[in-house]
Design a protein that fits this description.
The complex is a heterodimer of chains A (136) and B (401).
Chain A: H1 5-16, H2 19-32, E1 55-62, E2 65-72, H3 75-88, H4 93-98, H5 101-107, H6 122-133
Antiparallel strand pairs in A: 1-2
Chain B: H1 12-19, E1 23-24, H2 35-47, H3 58-77, E2 84-89, H4 92-103, E3 112-116, H5 125-134, E4 137-141, H6 151-157, E5 162-168, H7 180-189, E6 193-197, H8 209-212, E7 216-220, E8 231-236, H9 237-240, E9 253-256, E10 261-263, H10 277-291, H11 295-315, E11 319-321, E12 329-334, H12 339-348, E13 351-352, E14 354-356, H13 361-366, E15 372-376, H14 383-400
Parallel strand pairs in B: 1-13, 3-4, 3-5, 5-6, 6-7
Antiparallel strand pairs in B: 2-8, 7-8, 9-10, 11-12, 12-15, 14-15
The chains are: A mainly alpha (136), B alpha/beta (401).
Protein backbone atom coordinates (compact mmCIF):
# COMPACT_ATOMS: atom_id res chain seq x y z
CA UNK A 1 0.00 0.00 0.00
CA UNK A 2 1.53 3.32 -0.99
CA UNK A 3 1.58 6.20 1.42
CA UNK A 4 -0.93 9.03 1.12
CA UNK A 5 0.69 12.10 -0.41
CA UNK A 6 0.78 14.14 2.76
CA UNK A 7 2.30 11.23 4.62
CA UNK A 8 4.99 10.88 1.96
CA UNK A 9 5.75 14.60 2.34
CA UNK A 10 6.12 14.14 6.07
CA UNK A 11 8.38 11.14 5.65
CA UNK A 12 10.59 13.02 3.18
CA UNK A 13 10.85 16.02 5.47
CA UNK A 14 11.61 14.06 8.63
CA UNK A 15 14.10 11.66 7.11
CA UNK A 16 15.97 14.64 5.69
CA UNK A 17 16.06 16.37 9.09
CA UNK A 18 19.34 16.17 10.89
CA UNK A 19 19.42 16.69 14.61
CA UNK A 20 16.88 17.38 17.28
CA UNK A 21 16.53 21.07 16.50
CA UNK A 22 15.42 20.54 12.97
CA UNK A 23 13.05 17.79 14.00
CA UNK A 24 11.55 20.06 16.64
CA UNK A 25 11.09 22.88 14.11
CA UNK A 26 9.43 20.48 11.68
CA UNK A 27 7.14 19.16 14.40
CA UNK A 28 6.02 22.68 15.22
CA UNK A 29 5.43 23.45 11.55
CA UNK A 30 3.39 20.31 11.10
CA UNK A 31 1.41 21.17 14.20
CA UNK A 32 0.29 24.41 12.54
CA UNK A 33 -1.29 22.37 9.76
CA UNK A 34 -3.87 20.78 12.04
CA UNK A 35 -7.34 22.03 11.21
CA UNK A 36 -8.47 24.29 14.05
CA UNK A 37 -10.83 22.76 16.56
CA UNK A 38 -13.82 24.60 17.94
CA UNK A 39 -14.34 25.00 21.66
CA UNK A 40 -17.41 22.74 21.41
CA UNK A 41 -15.26 20.01 19.89
CA UNK A 42 -12.78 20.37 22.73
CA UNK A 43 -15.23 18.73 25.10
CA UNK A 44 -14.49 16.32 27.90
CA UNK A 45 -15.97 13.54 25.80
CA UNK A 46 -13.38 14.05 23.06
CA UNK A 47 -10.54 14.48 25.52
CA UNK A 48 -7.96 11.71 25.52
CA UNK A 49 -6.78 11.22 29.08
CA UNK A 50 -3.44 9.94 30.26
CA UNK A 51 -1.48 12.82 28.80
CA UNK A 52 0.73 15.48 30.29
CA UNK A 53 -0.92 17.98 27.99
CA UNK A 54 -4.55 18.23 27.00
CA UNK A 55 -5.32 16.23 23.86
CA UNK A 56 -8.62 16.00 21.99
CA UNK A 57 -9.53 13.59 19.23
CA UNK A 58 -12.71 13.91 17.15
CA UNK A 59 -13.52 11.04 14.83
CA UNK A 60 -16.14 10.67 12.12
CA UNK A 61 -16.80 8.04 9.48
CA UNK A 62 -17.89 8.88 5.92
CA UNK A 63 -18.79 5.95 3.67
CA UNK A 64 -16.83 3.63 5.91
CA UNK A 65 -13.73 5.88 5.83
CA UNK A 66 -12.30 7.41 8.99
CA UNK A 67 -11.57 11.11 9.29
CA UNK A 68 -10.06 12.57 12.41
CA UNK A 69 -9.43 15.96 13.84
CA UNK A 70 -7.13 16.42 16.79
CA UNK A 71 -5.69 19.16 18.91
CA UNK A 72 -3.57 19.78 21.97
CA UNK A 73 -2.55 22.70 24.13
CA UNK A 74 1.11 21.71 23.62
CA UNK A 75 2.78 22.57 20.33
CA UNK A 76 5.04 19.58 19.84
CA UNK A 77 2.18 17.21 20.58
CA UNK A 78 0.16 19.00 17.91
CA UNK A 79 2.97 18.16 15.51
CA UNK A 80 2.90 14.50 16.50
CA UNK A 81 -0.88 14.46 16.09
CA UNK A 82 -0.61 16.01 12.63
CA UNK A 83 1.85 13.30 11.60
CA UNK A 84 -0.53 10.69 12.89
CA UNK A 85 -3.56 12.10 11.11
CA UNK A 86 -1.90 12.33 7.67
CA UNK A 87 -1.13 8.64 7.95
CA UNK A 88 -4.61 7.47 8.95
CA UNK A 89 -6.92 9.87 7.13
CA UNK A 90 -9.43 8.11 4.90
CA UNK A 91 -8.66 4.57 6.03
CA UNK A 92 -11.34 1.96 6.62
CA UNK A 93 -11.63 0.25 9.97
CA UNK A 94 -9.93 -2.84 8.58
CA UNK A 95 -7.04 -0.79 7.18
CA UNK A 96 -6.72 1.15 10.41
CA UNK A 97 -6.58 -2.08 12.42
CA UNK A 98 -3.85 -3.48 10.19
CA UNK A 99 -1.74 -0.36 10.19
CA UNK A 100 1.41 -0.49 12.31
CA UNK A 101 1.42 3.03 13.69
CA UNK A 102 4.45 2.64 15.95
CA UNK A 103 6.37 1.62 12.80
CA UNK A 104 5.21 4.85 11.14
CA UNK A 105 6.71 6.93 13.94
CA UNK A 106 9.88 4.85 13.82
CA UNK A 107 10.14 5.62 10.09
CA UNK A 108 9.87 9.29 10.94
CA UNK A 109 12.66 8.98 13.52
CA UNK A 110 10.24 9.71 16.34
CA UNK A 111 9.97 6.28 17.95
CA UNK A 112 11.11 7.62 21.31
CA UNK A 113 7.91 9.65 21.52
CA UNK A 114 6.06 6.36 21.91
CA UNK A 115 8.17 4.83 24.67
CA UNK A 116 6.07 3.64 27.62
CA UNK A 117 7.62 6.17 29.99
CA UNK A 118 6.41 9.06 27.84
CA UNK A 119 3.20 10.54 29.03
CA UNK A 120 2.83 12.88 26.06
CA UNK A 121 -0.41 11.24 25.08
CA UNK A 122 0.50 9.78 21.73
CA UNK A 123 0.13 6.25 23.08
CA UNK A 124 -3.27 7.10 24.52
CA UNK A 125 -4.37 8.52 21.16
CA UNK A 126 -3.26 5.37 19.34
CA UNK A 127 -5.23 3.29 21.84
CA UNK A 128 -8.33 5.40 21.27
CA UNK A 129 -7.99 4.97 17.51
CA UNK A 130 -7.57 1.23 17.87
CA UNK A 131 -10.76 1.10 19.96
CA UNK A 132 -12.64 3.12 17.35
CA UNK A 133 -11.39 0.88 14.54
CA UNK A 134 -12.41 -2.21 16.50
CA UNK A 135 -15.90 -0.73 16.88
CA UNK A 136 -15.61 -0.52 20.64
CA UNK B 1 33.50 29.45 38.33
CA UNK B 2 33.49 25.67 38.14
CA UNK B 3 32.16 23.99 41.25
CA UNK B 4 33.17 20.32 41.20
CA UNK B 5 31.58 17.65 43.37
CA UNK B 6 34.27 15.84 45.36
CA UNK B 7 31.90 12.85 45.62
CA UNK B 8 30.96 12.50 41.96
CA UNK B 9 33.40 9.67 41.28
CA UNK B 10 31.88 7.65 44.14
CA UNK B 11 28.76 7.24 41.97
CA UNK B 12 29.68 5.17 38.90
CA UNK B 13 26.33 5.74 37.19
CA UNK B 14 27.03 9.44 36.81
CA UNK B 15 29.94 8.74 34.46
CA UNK B 16 27.90 6.10 32.63
CA UNK B 17 25.05 8.56 32.14
CA UNK B 18 27.48 11.18 30.94
CA UNK B 19 28.79 8.79 28.30
CA UNK B 20 25.19 8.57 27.08
CA UNK B 21 25.07 12.39 27.08
CA UNK B 22 22.62 12.44 29.94
CA UNK B 23 22.70 15.06 32.67
CA UNK B 24 20.86 13.73 35.68
CA UNK B 25 18.89 16.40 37.53
CA UNK B 26 16.01 14.28 38.81
CA UNK B 27 17.38 13.06 42.13
CA UNK B 28 14.23 14.03 44.02
CA UNK B 29 12.55 11.22 42.07
CA UNK B 30 15.32 8.75 42.74
CA UNK B 31 19.04 9.01 43.32
CA UNK B 32 22.09 7.37 41.78
CA UNK B 33 23.94 4.90 43.99
CA UNK B 34 27.42 4.94 45.55
CA UNK B 35 29.94 2.22 44.75
CA UNK B 36 29.80 1.19 48.41
CA UNK B 37 26.19 0.11 47.91
CA UNK B 38 26.96 -1.80 44.70
CA UNK B 39 29.75 -3.60 46.55
CA UNK B 40 27.49 -4.53 49.45
CA UNK B 41 24.79 -5.94 47.14
CA UNK B 42 27.34 -7.87 45.17
CA UNK B 43 28.95 -9.19 48.35
CA UNK B 44 25.63 -10.33 49.81
CA UNK B 45 24.47 -12.10 46.67
CA UNK B 46 27.96 -13.35 45.87
CA UNK B 47 28.64 -14.85 49.28
CA UNK B 48 25.40 -16.59 50.07
CA UNK B 49 21.89 -15.24 50.32
CA UNK B 50 19.72 -16.50 53.14
CA UNK B 51 16.43 -15.62 54.76
CA UNK B 52 16.48 -13.68 58.01
CA UNK B 53 15.11 -14.49 61.48
CA UNK B 54 14.26 -18.04 60.45
CA UNK B 55 17.14 -20.42 60.03
CA UNK B 56 19.80 -21.50 62.48
CA UNK B 57 22.29 -22.32 59.68
CA UNK B 58 25.36 -20.18 59.15
CA UNK B 59 24.24 -18.27 56.03
CA UNK B 60 20.98 -17.46 57.83
CA UNK B 61 22.84 -16.26 60.89
CA UNK B 62 25.14 -14.04 58.83
CA UNK B 63 22.29 -12.54 56.83
CA UNK B 64 20.29 -11.88 60.01
CA UNK B 65 23.32 -10.30 61.62
CA UNK B 66 23.90 -7.99 58.65
CA UNK B 67 20.18 -7.21 58.45
CA UNK B 68 19.92 -6.27 62.11
CA UNK B 69 23.19 -4.31 61.93
CA UNK B 70 21.52 -2.20 59.24
CA UNK B 71 18.58 -1.59 61.53
CA UNK B 72 21.01 -0.30 64.13
CA UNK B 73 22.71 1.92 61.55
CA UNK B 74 19.37 3.43 60.51
CA UNK B 75 18.48 3.99 64.16
CA UNK B 76 21.83 5.69 64.74
CA UNK B 77 21.41 7.81 61.59
CA UNK B 78 18.09 9.13 62.95
CA UNK B 79 19.40 9.34 66.51
CA UNK B 80 16.77 6.92 67.76
CA UNK B 81 17.46 6.24 71.42
CA UNK B 82 15.97 3.54 73.61
CA UNK B 83 12.55 5.15 73.22
CA UNK B 84 11.80 4.01 69.69
CA UNK B 85 12.32 1.47 66.93
CA UNK B 86 12.92 1.11 63.22
CA UNK B 87 10.48 -0.89 61.07
CA UNK B 88 11.45 -1.83 57.52
CA UNK B 89 8.73 -1.61 54.86
CA UNK B 90 8.69 -1.89 51.09
CA UNK B 91 8.84 1.87 50.58
CA UNK B 92 7.77 5.16 52.09
CA UNK B 93 4.33 4.73 50.51
CA UNK B 94 4.08 1.35 52.17
CA UNK B 95 5.10 2.82 55.54
CA UNK B 96 2.43 5.54 55.33
CA UNK B 97 -0.21 2.96 54.38
CA UNK B 98 0.92 0.85 57.32
CA UNK B 99 0.20 3.82 59.58
CA UNK B 100 -3.17 4.61 58.03
CA UNK B 101 -4.34 0.99 58.28
CA UNK B 102 -2.59 0.30 61.56
CA UNK B 103 -4.23 3.24 63.32
CA UNK B 104 -7.65 2.81 61.70
CA UNK B 105 -9.51 1.13 64.59
CA UNK B 106 -8.54 3.94 66.94
CA UNK B 107 -10.67 6.55 65.21
CA UNK B 108 -14.34 7.47 65.54
CA UNK B 109 -16.50 9.20 62.95
CA UNK B 110 -16.25 12.97 63.18
CA UNK B 111 -12.66 13.01 64.39
CA UNK B 112 -10.05 14.78 62.32
CA UNK B 113 -6.82 14.10 60.48
CA UNK B 114 -4.72 17.08 59.44
CA UNK B 115 -2.38 17.11 56.45
CA UNK B 116 -0.90 20.06 54.60
CA UNK B 117 -1.88 21.35 51.16
CA UNK B 118 1.52 20.39 49.76
CA UNK B 119 1.60 16.69 50.53
CA UNK B 120 2.88 14.14 48.07
CA UNK B 121 0.13 11.69 47.13
CA UNK B 122 1.86 9.12 49.36
CA UNK B 123 1.11 11.23 52.44
CA UNK B 124 -2.31 12.37 51.26
CA UNK B 125 -4.16 9.42 49.76
CA UNK B 126 -3.70 6.90 52.62
CA UNK B 127 -5.21 9.48 55.03
CA UNK B 128 -7.87 10.60 52.56
CA UNK B 129 -9.04 7.02 52.06
CA UNK B 130 -8.88 6.31 55.80
CA UNK B 131 -11.04 9.39 56.38
CA UNK B 132 -13.55 8.11 53.83
CA UNK B 133 -13.64 4.64 55.36
CA UNK B 134 -14.19 5.87 58.91
CA UNK B 135 -16.20 9.05 58.37
CA UNK B 136 -13.34 11.25 59.56
CA UNK B 137 -12.75 14.81 58.48
CA UNK B 138 -9.57 15.43 56.52
CA UNK B 139 -8.38 18.93 57.38
CA UNK B 140 -6.05 20.58 54.85
CA UNK B 141 -3.57 23.02 56.35
CA UNK B 142 -3.16 25.94 53.96
CA UNK B 143 0.12 27.34 52.67
CA UNK B 144 1.59 30.79 52.97
CA UNK B 145 3.08 32.63 49.98
CA UNK B 146 6.56 31.32 50.72
CA UNK B 147 5.53 27.69 50.25
CA UNK B 148 5.49 26.88 53.93
CA UNK B 149 2.46 25.76 55.89
CA UNK B 150 0.68 28.87 57.16
CA UNK B 151 1.52 28.45 60.82
CA UNK B 152 -1.13 30.77 62.28
CA UNK B 153 -3.86 29.07 60.29
CA UNK B 154 -2.51 25.60 61.06
CA UNK B 155 -2.39 26.18 64.80
CA UNK B 156 -6.05 27.23 64.65
CA UNK B 157 -7.05 24.19 62.61
CA UNK B 158 -5.24 21.62 64.74
CA UNK B 159 -7.40 21.21 67.82
CA UNK B 160 -8.71 18.66 70.30
CA UNK B 161 -10.56 16.73 67.56
CA UNK B 162 -7.31 16.24 65.62
CA UNK B 163 -6.13 12.67 66.04
CA UNK B 164 -3.27 12.68 63.52
CA UNK B 165 -1.07 15.36 62.00
CA UNK B 166 0.80 14.09 58.94
CA UNK B 167 3.15 16.54 57.21
CA UNK B 168 6.14 16.62 54.91
CA UNK B 169 9.43 17.90 56.16
CA UNK B 170 10.64 19.28 52.81
CA UNK B 171 8.28 19.82 49.88
CA UNK B 172 9.07 17.76 46.77
CA UNK B 173 7.58 20.52 44.58
CA UNK B 174 8.33 23.78 46.37
CA UNK B 175 11.64 22.90 48.05
CA UNK B 176 10.47 24.53 51.27
CA UNK B 177 11.31 23.28 54.75
CA UNK B 178 8.18 23.10 56.86
CA UNK B 179 7.89 24.65 60.33
CA UNK B 180 7.76 21.25 61.97
CA UNK B 181 8.74 22.12 65.52
CA UNK B 182 5.80 24.41 66.38
CA UNK B 183 3.37 22.25 64.40
CA UNK B 184 4.42 19.00 66.05
CA UNK B 185 4.55 20.50 69.54
CA UNK B 186 1.07 21.98 69.15
CA UNK B 187 -0.40 18.78 67.71
CA UNK B 188 1.07 16.67 70.49
CA UNK B 189 -0.27 19.10 73.10
CA UNK B 190 -3.72 18.50 71.56
CA UNK B 191 -3.25 14.76 71.94
CA UNK B 192 -2.71 14.07 68.23
CA UNK B 193 -0.24 11.56 66.85
CA UNK B 194 2.39 13.14 64.62
CA UNK B 195 3.71 11.71 61.36
CA UNK B 196 6.57 13.29 59.42
CA UNK B 197 7.11 12.38 55.77
CA UNK B 198 10.88 12.71 55.51
CA UNK B 199 11.23 11.35 51.97
CA UNK B 200 12.90 14.56 50.75
CA UNK B 201 14.07 16.01 54.06
CA UNK B 202 16.29 13.10 55.02
CA UNK B 203 18.37 13.54 51.85
CA UNK B 204 19.41 17.08 52.70
CA UNK B 205 20.84 17.09 56.19
CA UNK B 206 20.94 14.73 59.17
CA UNK B 207 17.62 14.38 60.93
CA UNK B 208 17.19 13.73 64.62
CA UNK B 209 13.79 12.24 65.51
CA UNK B 210 14.42 12.95 69.17
CA UNK B 211 14.89 16.67 68.51
CA UNK B 212 12.01 16.73 66.05
CA UNK B 213 9.68 15.29 68.63
CA UNK B 214 7.47 13.28 66.28
CA UNK B 215 5.73 9.96 66.89
CA UNK B 216 6.50 8.57 63.44
CA UNK B 217 9.10 9.47 60.81
CA UNK B 218 9.01 7.91 57.35
CA UNK B 219 11.53 7.87 54.50
CA UNK B 220 12.45 5.82 51.47
CA UNK B 221 15.87 4.32 50.95
CA UNK B 222 16.11 4.96 47.22
CA UNK B 223 16.01 8.73 47.52
CA UNK B 224 18.80 8.61 50.13
CA UNK B 225 21.28 6.99 47.70
CA UNK B 226 20.13 3.55 48.86
CA UNK B 227 18.47 0.64 47.06
CA UNK B 228 14.80 0.71 46.07
CA UNK B 229 11.99 -1.44 47.41
CA UNK B 230 12.76 -0.35 50.96
CA UNK B 231 11.10 2.15 53.24
CA UNK B 232 11.86 3.05 56.81
CA UNK B 233 9.35 3.75 59.54
CA UNK B 234 10.60 5.12 62.82
CA UNK B 235 8.10 5.00 65.63
CA UNK B 236 8.41 5.94 69.27
CA UNK B 237 7.54 2.96 71.44
CA UNK B 238 4.20 4.25 72.80
CA UNK B 239 3.02 5.13 69.30
CA UNK B 240 4.12 1.80 67.81
CA UNK B 241 2.12 0.03 70.51
CA UNK B 242 -1.03 1.69 69.13
CA UNK B 243 -0.66 0.11 65.70
CA UNK B 244 -2.54 -3.01 64.80
CA UNK B 245 -0.77 -5.31 62.32
CA UNK B 246 -1.89 -4.60 58.76
CA UNK B 247 -0.25 -7.30 56.68
CA UNK B 248 -0.19 -10.89 57.78
CA UNK B 249 2.10 -13.76 56.96
CA UNK B 250 5.47 -15.27 57.66
CA UNK B 251 7.51 -14.29 60.70
CA UNK B 252 5.22 -11.55 61.99
CA UNK B 253 3.31 -14.18 63.94
CA UNK B 254 3.93 -15.46 67.47
CA UNK B 255 1.60 -18.44 67.52
CA UNK B 256 -0.43 -19.43 64.49
CA UNK B 257 -3.44 -21.72 64.53
CA UNK B 258 -5.97 -22.57 61.84
CA UNK B 259 -8.59 -20.27 63.32
CA UNK B 260 -6.65 -17.68 65.26
CA UNK B 261 -3.16 -16.36 65.80
CA UNK B 262 -1.20 -13.97 67.94
CA UNK B 263 1.30 -11.50 66.59
CA UNK B 264 4.66 -10.12 67.45
CA UNK B 265 5.31 -6.58 68.60
CA UNK B 266 7.25 -4.04 66.55
CA UNK B 267 9.40 -4.20 64.59
CA UNK B 268 8.95 -7.80 63.41
CA UNK B 269 5.17 -7.72 63.82
CA UNK B 270 5.06 -5.18 60.99
CA UNK B 271 7.49 -6.98 58.70
CA UNK B 272 5.31 -9.77 57.33
CA UNK B 273 6.90 -12.01 54.73
CA UNK B 274 10.49 -12.00 53.57
CA UNK B 275 11.76 -8.44 53.83
CA UNK B 276 13.93 -6.83 51.13
CA UNK B 277 17.05 -8.31 52.72
CA UNK B 278 19.64 -7.19 50.17
CA UNK B 279 18.18 -3.69 50.13
CA UNK B 280 18.30 -3.45 53.91
CA UNK B 281 21.94 -4.56 53.92
CA UNK B 282 22.62 -2.17 51.04
CA UNK B 283 21.07 0.76 52.89
CA UNK B 284 23.40 0.01 55.79
CA UNK B 285 26.38 0.26 53.44
CA UNK B 286 25.02 3.51 51.98
CA UNK B 287 24.69 4.98 55.47
CA UNK B 288 28.27 3.94 56.28
CA UNK B 289 29.36 5.75 53.13
CA UNK B 290 27.32 8.85 53.92
CA UNK B 291 28.59 8.87 57.50
CA UNK B 292 32.16 8.95 56.16
CA UNK B 293 31.54 12.25 54.35
CA UNK B 294 32.14 15.69 55.75
CA UNK B 295 28.51 16.64 56.42
CA UNK B 296 29.12 20.37 56.44
CA UNK B 297 31.06 20.18 53.14
CA UNK B 298 28.11 18.32 51.60
CA UNK B 299 25.65 20.89 52.94
CA UNK B 300 27.75 23.78 51.60
CA UNK B 301 28.12 22.12 48.21
CA UNK B 302 24.37 21.55 47.91
CA UNK B 303 23.54 25.05 49.08
CA UNK B 304 25.95 26.61 46.56
CA UNK B 305 24.49 24.53 43.71
CA UNK B 306 20.99 25.47 44.80
CA UNK B 307 21.88 29.19 44.79
CA UNK B 308 23.34 28.71 41.31
CA UNK B 309 20.12 27.04 40.15
CA UNK B 310 17.88 29.80 41.54
CA UNK B 311 20.13 32.55 40.18
CA UNK B 312 20.10 31.02 36.71
CA UNK B 313 16.33 30.66 36.69
CA UNK B 314 15.78 34.17 38.05
CA UNK B 315 18.15 35.65 35.43
CA UNK B 316 15.95 34.38 32.62
CA UNK B 317 12.92 36.27 31.48
CA UNK B 318 9.43 34.87 31.87
CA UNK B 319 10.38 32.09 34.29
CA UNK B 320 8.18 31.70 37.34
CA UNK B 321 9.61 29.66 40.20
CA UNK B 322 6.99 27.90 42.36
CA UNK B 323 7.18 29.11 45.96
CA UNK B 324 10.51 30.14 47.45
CA UNK B 325 12.71 27.04 47.36
CA UNK B 326 15.17 26.76 50.23
CA UNK B 327 16.92 23.53 49.31
CA UNK B 328 17.40 20.64 46.94
CA UNK B 329 15.19 21.61 44.02
CA UNK B 330 13.24 24.23 42.14
CA UNK B 331 10.07 23.84 40.11
CA UNK B 332 9.17 26.39 37.49
CA UNK B 333 6.94 27.31 34.60
CA UNK B 334 7.63 29.63 31.68
CA UNK B 335 5.14 32.26 30.51
CA UNK B 336 3.52 31.25 27.25
CA UNK B 337 5.35 27.92 27.04
CA UNK B 338 3.70 24.59 27.77
CA UNK B 339 5.76 22.55 30.19
CA UNK B 340 5.22 19.43 28.05
CA UNK B 341 6.90 21.23 25.12
CA UNK B 342 9.77 22.37 27.27
CA UNK B 343 10.19 18.90 28.77
CA UNK B 344 10.21 17.41 25.28
CA UNK B 345 13.04 19.66 24.13
CA UNK B 346 15.07 19.24 27.32
CA UNK B 347 14.79 15.47 26.88
CA UNK B 348 15.99 15.81 23.28
CA UNK B 349 19.10 17.50 24.66
CA UNK B 350 19.81 14.84 27.28
CA UNK B 351 18.63 16.78 30.30
CA UNK B 352 16.91 14.48 32.78
CA UNK B 353 14.45 16.63 34.71
CA UNK B 354 10.92 15.90 35.75
CA UNK B 355 7.83 17.46 34.19
CA UNK B 356 4.26 17.14 35.36
CA UNK B 357 2.45 17.25 38.67
CA UNK B 358 5.18 15.53 40.74
CA UNK B 359 2.67 13.29 42.54
CA UNK B 360 1.21 16.37 44.19
CA UNK B 361 -1.73 17.06 41.91
CA UNK B 362 -3.86 19.01 44.42
CA UNK B 363 -0.93 21.33 45.17
CA UNK B 364 -0.02 21.95 41.54
CA UNK B 365 -3.68 22.52 40.64
CA UNK B 366 -4.13 24.91 43.56
CA UNK B 367 -1.31 27.01 42.09
CA UNK B 368 -3.44 27.30 38.96
CA UNK B 369 -1.14 25.01 36.97
CA UNK B 370 -1.42 21.59 35.42
CA UNK B 371 2.27 20.91 35.60
CA UNK B 372 5.75 22.31 36.10
CA UNK B 373 9.36 21.41 35.38
CA UNK B 374 11.40 20.35 38.39
CA UNK B 375 15.18 20.42 38.58
CA UNK B 376 16.50 18.55 41.61
CA UNK B 377 20.02 18.24 42.93
CA UNK B 378 22.12 15.70 44.77
CA UNK B 379 25.60 15.71 46.23
CA UNK B 380 27.10 14.26 43.02
CA UNK B 381 25.91 17.13 40.81
CA UNK B 382 28.35 19.85 39.85
CA UNK B 383 28.06 23.29 38.30
CA UNK B 384 28.67 21.87 34.81
CA UNK B 385 25.43 19.90 35.16
CA UNK B 386 23.62 23.16 35.77
CA UNK B 387 25.41 24.90 32.90
CA UNK B 388 24.32 22.13 30.54
CA UNK B 389 20.78 22.47 31.83
CA UNK B 390 20.77 26.24 31.35
CA UNK B 391 22.15 26.14 27.85
CA UNK B 392 19.60 23.44 26.92
CA UNK B 393 16.88 25.59 28.47
CA UNK B 394 17.98 28.62 26.45
CA UNK B 395 18.02 26.60 23.24
CA UNK B 396 14.59 25.14 23.95
CA UNK B 397 13.08 28.52 24.77
CA UNK B 398 14.58 30.06 21.67
CA UNK B 399 12.85 27.42 19.56
CA UNK B 400 9.56 27.67 21.39
CA UNK B 401 9.26 31.46 21.62
Amino acid sequence: MSLPNAAQDALDAFTAASGWEQRARLLMQWGERLAPMTDEEKSDEQRVHGCESKVWLVARQDDGRWHFNASSDARLIRGLLALLLVRVDGLSSAELQQLDLPAWFTQLGLSRQLSPSRSNGLNAVLQRMAQLAAGA
Amino acid sequence: MFQPSPWRADFPAIAALQRQHQTYLDSAATSQKPQALLDALSHYYGHGAANVHRAQHLPGALATQAFEASRDKVAAWLNVGASGQIVFTHGATSALNLLAYGLEPRFEAGEEIAVSALEHHANLLPWQQLARRRGLKLVILPLAENGQIDLDAALQLIGPRTRVLAVSQLSNVLGSWQPLQPLLAHARAQGALTVVDGAQGIVHGRQDVDLLGCDFYVFSSHKLYGPDGLGVLYGCSQALALLRPWQFGGEMVQLAGYQESSFRAAPLGFEAGTPPIASVIGLGATLDYLASLDASAVAEHEAALHRHLLRGLNDREGIRILGQPQAALASFVVDGVHNADLAHLLTEQGIAVRAGHHCAMPLVNSLGLDGAIRVSLALYNDSDDLQRFFSALDQALELLR
